[in-house]
Structure to design on (628 residues):
């Protein structure tokens, strides 16, 4: 039987590309700036339709409301879905 | 559920997948309700039933149409209700006319007598419920499957009244709420359509933006967009699509090709392991404040009992912080409080308008729609269908036709694999693997005793399971609830047995749901069947 997963306790960022890079611990500032930069850059170069959000069906209503508001009001995208397809 | 006369569990193994709901269902049974189970497998839910209809995978419309035809032929349909509250009955009647009991027995494998019994029992029960889950909706024709069931309720008037109705049982504790909150590509909060200009204008005014005026892509559409290179950045919150999507090989390739992937989760799932940025979050059921919405539309409070570990943060705080760094205005995205976010939602979603935290706490939750603070919420929907005349549009009959599963059986792939869930584990197993359970036995390929004998495989023997898309290995388990030609696996142990390497992403064009319930497989032994006989040889001369 596989060992259970352990809780994530710190942000991680990848150094290098997806195939060969590794995830390493980072501060919240570094992680959030990096997350935001990638999303903002995509919206700026390709528009909101190139960005998507998968929201969480076990998170609260408030989190889901905030996620769709982030998509629509900040990322200019209607590409958001929760676990409705299974 | 506790005050009904008949329950049909159609494509639902609620005893194992919805145990709390099933507890209420059993109270109904103890109060005298009859239980019918429609499922290819004789599951533990079916064992509780007065009658089990073991149909072939993907033949639900054939069965439902035959039930409908039999109700009409026996004169048991509710003519008053049909005339007053519905449209399209004559087209429906004509379309199901060829779906005789004999036709359905051939098409579904269910004996004609049982189909007749279900039809008569359902139609004559004073109150009756149909409950369904993924057995109906994880098909390429999911929406048609649901429509076929709706037609039965419209035939008999078993809708819009206490103790009668149509009940999809939702699979996550807040999937209903997620959709209600507008985490959908075509719906704003409160299920208001994105492309409805006056409704969208209210959100534009509230947020000071222009909400994009056309629907976005759902999850299935987003995957297709990733494959085309049209969607290149993805923010995943608490989902593990690397392991939960059908045709796992394809899903991994699509996610790997993203330019930017941000994953927010409580564990380093296989999806998080692909990410550019991983954000550690709070456990939603114990480490955060807020509300959730269940299958009976009841919104209830959840409360923070623990702090998240280490540097993990509340999901709402993470999203708000991200929004500020993305240029969202500070007055809209300041330090969040769950109650303030909820109160904003209440100003924008009429059906939640009356649900203050104070009322939710005092009442033990409220069922939407709940329009204002004096509104008690609604315990059941569609009561308007019993008014004379019916306000609004009448309920339409929509005839639908049987359409067999996409992943066809043939000589190379002769066994029908259907996948599902067990009581002891949860979805891809990330959250449940860490808890010990005497019920949890790991992944198996469940085979009928007949198939196992034909394949000459024994209980516990590891075999290779192969589909047109991939292969996995798993030990055999014999299950007498499976008919010959039907196999069962779960998605609970994806790290050990990646069942979704086998499944097909044949999706319903309307709903985007994939046909997880119908994969074509073959099973192969890993070792030769019989040991080769020893031959005597002359001694080797050195």
């Amino acid at each position: 039987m596989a060992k259970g997963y352990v809780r994530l306790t710190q942000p991680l960022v990848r150094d290098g590309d997806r195939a060969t890079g590794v995830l390493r611990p980072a501060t919240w500032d570094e992680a959030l700036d990096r997350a935001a930069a990638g999303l903002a850059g995509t919206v700026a170069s390709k528009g909101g339709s190139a960005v998507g959000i998968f929201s969480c069906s076990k998170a609260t209503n408030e989190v889901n409301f905030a996620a769709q508001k982030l998509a629509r009001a900040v990322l200019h995208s209607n590409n958001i879905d929760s676990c409705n397809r299974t | 559920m506790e005050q009904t006369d008949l329950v049909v569990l159609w494509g639902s193994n609620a005893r194992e997948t919805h145990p709390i709901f099933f507890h209420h269902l059993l109270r109904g049974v103890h109060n005298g309700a009859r239980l019918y189970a429609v499922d290819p497998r004789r599951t533990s839910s079916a064992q509780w039933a007065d009658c089990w209809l073991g149909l072939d995978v993907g033949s639900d419309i054939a069965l439902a149409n035959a039930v409908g035809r039999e109700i009409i032929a026996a004169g048991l349909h509710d003519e008053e209700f049909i005339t007053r509250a519905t449209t399209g009955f004559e087209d429906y009647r004509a379309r199901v006319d060829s779906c005789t009991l004999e036709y359905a027995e051939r098409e579904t494998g269910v004996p004609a007598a049982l189909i007749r019994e279900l039809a008569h029992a359902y139609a004559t029960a004073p109150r009756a419920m149909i409950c369904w889950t993924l057995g109906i909706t994880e098909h390429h024709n999911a929406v048609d499957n649901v429509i076929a069931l709706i037609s039965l309720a419209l035939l008999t008037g078993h809708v819009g009244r206490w103790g009668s109705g149509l009940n999809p049982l939702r699979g996550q504790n807040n999937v209903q709420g997620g959709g209600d909150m507008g985490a959908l590509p075509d719906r704003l909060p409160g299920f208001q359509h994105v492309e409805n200009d006056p409704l969208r204008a209210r959100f534009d005014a509230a947020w000071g933006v222009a909400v994009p005026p056309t629907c976005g892509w759902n999850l299935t559409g987003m995957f297709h967009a990733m494959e085309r290179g049209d969607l290149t950045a993805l923010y995943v919150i608490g989902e593990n699509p690397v392991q939960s999507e059908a045709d796992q090989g394809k899903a991994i390739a699509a996610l790997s090709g993203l330019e930017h992937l941000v994953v927010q989760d409580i564990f380093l799932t296989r999806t998080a392991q692909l990410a550019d940025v991983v954000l550690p979050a709070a456990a939603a059921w114990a480490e955060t404040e807020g509300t959730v919405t269940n299958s009976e539309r009841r919104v209830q409070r959840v409360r923070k009992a623990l702090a998240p570990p280490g540097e993990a943060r509340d999901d709402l705080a993470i999203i708000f912080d991200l929004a500020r760094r993305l240029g969202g205005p500070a007055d809209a995205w300041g330090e969040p409080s769950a109650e303030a976010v909820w109160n904003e939602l209440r100003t924008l979603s009429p059906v939640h308008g009356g649900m203050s935290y104070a009322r939710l706490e005092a009442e033990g939750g409220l069922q939407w729609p709940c329009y204002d603070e004096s509104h008690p919420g609604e315990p059941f929907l569609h009561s308007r269908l019993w008014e004379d005349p019916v306000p609004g549009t009448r309920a339409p009959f929509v005839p639908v036709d049987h359409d067999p599963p996409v992943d066809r059986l043939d000589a190379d792939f002769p066994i029908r694999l259907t996948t599902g869930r067990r009581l002891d584990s949860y979805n891809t197993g990330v959250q449940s693997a860490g808890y010990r359970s005497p019920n949890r036995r790991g992944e198996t390929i469940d085979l009928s005793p007949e198939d196992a004998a034909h394949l000459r495989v024994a209980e516990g023997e590891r075999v290779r399971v192969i589909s047109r898309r991939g292969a996995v290995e798993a030990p055999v388990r014999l299950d007498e609830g499976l008919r010959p030609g039907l196999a069962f696996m779960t998605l609970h142990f994806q790290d050990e047995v990646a069942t979704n390497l086998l499944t097909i992403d044949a999706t319903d064009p309307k709903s985007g749901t994939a046909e997880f319930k119908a994969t074509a497989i073959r099973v192969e032994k890993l070792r030769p069947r019989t040991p080769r006989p020893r031959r005597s040889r002359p001694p080797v001369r050195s």
Observations:
- Chain B has 19 helices and 21 strands.
